[in-house]
Amino acid sequence: MHGQTTDSTIIKRDVTIQKDYVPTIQDAGKINTIPSVLDPEVKTIDVQYSPYSTIMDPLYQIRALESARLKTPPIPVRKDGFLRLGAGSSITTLADFMYPLLNKPEYRLDINANHKGVFTEKKHHQNQGGIAFRRYREYGEFMIDATYGFEGFNYYGKNSIEADTLYTHTGGSVLGKDFLPTNAAITRWNMTSGYKTIPSERDYNYSINGSYSGFSAQKGLTEQQIHTHLTYDKKIDENKAGIDFQLQNLFYNNSHTAYPTNQFNYSVFRLNPFFAFEQSKWKLRMGVKTIFSKKEAGKGFVPTADIAGEATLVNKSIFAYGGITGDYQANTMQQMVALNKYGNLNEKIKDSYTPFDIYGGLKIKLLYNFLIDMSVRQKSIKNQHFFINETVFNAISNAPSYTNSFTVNYYDATVLNGNIRINYNYNQVFGFIIGWKYNAWKKLPNGIEAWHIPKHEFDFETDMKLTKKTTVNLNTYIATGREIRTLDGTAASLDPIIDINLGLYYAHSSKVSSFLKINNLANSHYELWNGYEVIGFNAMLGLAFSF
């Protein structure tokens, strides 16, 4: 679960550089992100421009639970750049760098670089560099970003293939030792450009942005995307009407795949007109999503509702919200690897379609700095995917054996989610977030489970300012009820995830700070994916400089 900030007093969990130097430390010493359902929605290009470009924080197979925070007292002057370095046990490394080549009130040009890695027998490292340009005008903001990244990891998981045993695979034969590479290498690149108007006294606003991105595996599919996104809205009295247009073009090359695939080039077109009623006590958005695609889960044309509303039940205390929507998800290689990098890189996940997504909830604000958010959600999903261990068969005995990669089962299913979050903050000195989530899958075939997805998730995080310069952070994540498919096709349970992390920050001055991170305090050796055990207890020391 990721923290959702609903009030300015609640603990912030985003990694951004704004007007103050407030980068947060990621768990670079841990290979453990939690499997979750890819929401069936297209991730549009985020064009939320700010005076400072964000830290380049690429997709990475590390759970985004913060073990410590880097905070400095508010400084009224504009910062130029920063450098953050860290190293620790299990040969973990961390580096972040950002510096503005140009820094004027009307424009800014930044260069940035990012590295996270662990280099034990469970190797995983990711590196990314980029450049970001912002041009500020009275009524709008223009941006251009370009990034390039390289990721490397090894398949260290459950592999029962004997090196001298012959196996058949899609009609051919291969030695077990040659079935998978020991190491994998992935490259990603992205170029994004956009313009958005700044809200003003005008009765209309719009944004336009486009991106070209790519994904290439050493052995596997090469994927390229061109994504265009246009939005326009206009005030009509106190209300608003608008339209959202998206065009996603996907291109594939299978020249590096281990065997022929049926991937082909295709497009997904979305048109979403809407009308929004905006009153002092309530808001209601009514629209329709019209989606066109010729890919697996669609039927050419797949319309869904787009209805969302919120209302104040008790002034400044109790709020209700809910909606009925749906979407079509073009599941790309980049999304698949972000979810499970050990998936079979020769095939991408099939597209999925959500005809109905119904949700509702209450927000109860007992005090100015105390908030309870309770919600329930039910989705009907076609072509929902679940990761299972990939197997091959002995050519002589015809007995199945694990490889150390994952393939996917697809089912039409319904999922019911319950969610409770409690947020509290006391004068920015002490704060905590407590969350619980329940996932119940329905309408799956007999003997089929929501493989690797937990039924119960518990999340706790607290920050405490011990002195003016010292802050301590503790967070805990617990997940239970994860099922896997075994070699004989039956279900088995994985051990619960128990992840406890501690961080300590100290500000030596307004420009220099240090941190200590202790991850996996319980030294838990749970398996993130079946056969992939996480790193146990580890610690990291680091320094950060603002200049």
What would you say this structure looks like, in words?
This protein is mainly beta and 547 residues long. Helices cover 2% and strands 59% of the residues. A hairpin with a 3-residue loop joins strand 16 (300-314) and strand 17 (318-329). It starts with 23 loop residues before the first strand and ends with a strand. Residues 1-78 have low confidence and may be disordered.
Task: Record the SSE blueprint.
Layout: E1 24-25, E2 68-69, E3 82-88, E4 92-104, E5 107-118, E6 124-136, E7 140-154, E8 166-169, E9 172-175, H1 176-179, E10 183-197, E11 204-217, E12 222-236, E13 239-253, E14 266-278, E15 282-293, E16 300-314, E17 318-329, H2 333-339, E18 352-367, E19 370-394, E20 400-426, E21 430-442, E22 456-465, E23 470-480, E24 483-485, E25 491-493, E26 497-507, E27 512-519, E28 527-529, E29 532-533, E30 538-546
Antiparallel strand pairs: 1-2, 3-4, 3-30, 4-5, 5-6, 6-7, 7-10, 8-9, 8-19, 10-11, 11-12, 12-13, 13-14, 14-15, 15-16, 16-17, 17-18, 18-19, 19-20, 20-21, 21-22, 22-23, 23-26, 24-25, 26-27, 27-30, 28-29
